[in-house]
Amino acid sequence: MPPSRRAKQFAPFDALKGLKEAIAAKEKRPEPRRELTDYMKEQINNALLDLQKGQQITVVYYEKQEQQTAQITGTVMKVDAHWQTLLINQIVIGFEEIYDIIE
What we know:
The protein is built from 3 helices and 5 strands, in the order H-H-H-E-E-E-E-E. The protein has helices at 3-8, 19-26, 38-50; strands at 56-63, 68-80, 85-88, 91-94, 98-102. The protein has a 5-stranded antiparallel beta sheet, covered by helices on one side. The model has no long low-confidence stretch (mean pLDDT 88).
């Protein structure tokens, strides 16, 4: 057997095609939370006060579990001032996690 062909039989191979790519895709780097300015907090507070049950909105917020910014569009089901939470499409979002509300 010629040496060029002989070297190929000892070359490393990927037993599970795409495994390396799948692992790399799963490795998420946590995104630090952004600090909001007082002006931004005031704007979010005013938007929360104007929300009505059944209203369609888009909310940009920090997802604690995923440790990254997320966005959801849906129907407002409840705005709970006591617990400081917003319920939209069965997802509970804390007021302190909200970055922006788009009506």
